[in-house]
Every structure is written in C-alpha cells, then in structure tokens.
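Handoff note, outgoing to incoming analyst
You'll be picking up this chain. Sequence as last confirmed:
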Amino acid sequence: MTVIPLQVTPASAAVSPAVKFTLVSDKERPSQRKRRAYVPTGVVGQHMARAQELKIQMDRLKVQVEEERQWFIEHLLSRDLSVLELGDFQIERRTTSKWTYSTATEREQQALKVTQKWEQKQGIATNDPTVSCAFVIRTRKKA
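Most recent structure output, in case you need it:
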C-alpha cells in the first residue's frame, strides 16, 4: 500500500489523523489494484469526522431504540394490545410464527411439505411465535 504524505496544517490537525482513505482506480482490475491511503485534510477531513460522529450517534441510538422496543413488546403483550397511537406515531405489535416439527418430519422436509401443513392443522406441530413491534409514522392524506 502506498501512503501519500500530506502536510498537516493547524486546521487539518483538528481532524482525526488516524482516519485514512483508500483510493482505487475503477479502470484497474481487482487483482491489479494498488491501494493508496492518505490522511484526509480540509473539507474532506471535516466531512469524515462528521460522518464518524454521526455513525457513533447512530450506534448509540440503535441500542437505545432496541431497549425501548423490548419495553414496548412487554407492554403490548402484558395488556394484549396490538397498537399504541400518539398522533401520527404508532407502535404496532407484530408476530411471526415459528413452527417446530417432529424429528421424523424434519428429516424429510422437502418431500413432506404437505405433511407439515397437515400437522399444523391437526395440532401436532407447535407454534412458537416471535413478537416484535414497529415504529410507524403515518402521514395524513390532504383532502
């Protein structure tokens, strides 16, 4: 990998010097590509630093949203609710079925799809539903 040396100015020093770009020519075939890296400065460095900050914020928010999602799932299940509404914002309970079949049926699964449907109807197969919720913003149609 070829590293392109760049001058570090006081303005570019504020950008994380550990960030590097990899440049690859589109005309080169993957096996012929030479990797070149450099520390971005100026506007590119500022955008890279901002993108990095946003990515960190997104990761933190994903964790927080997942915690809230679990709380809402428990709330919806405990009160046997399917939807919570607050203005245009809704939280909907969603359930996905997960069927578990007998061992003999699993061995011949491709050939026995008809048998699986029969087991579902007869109550032999068990249904272990997965419950989730979705945050939905509904927009009202203008008249």
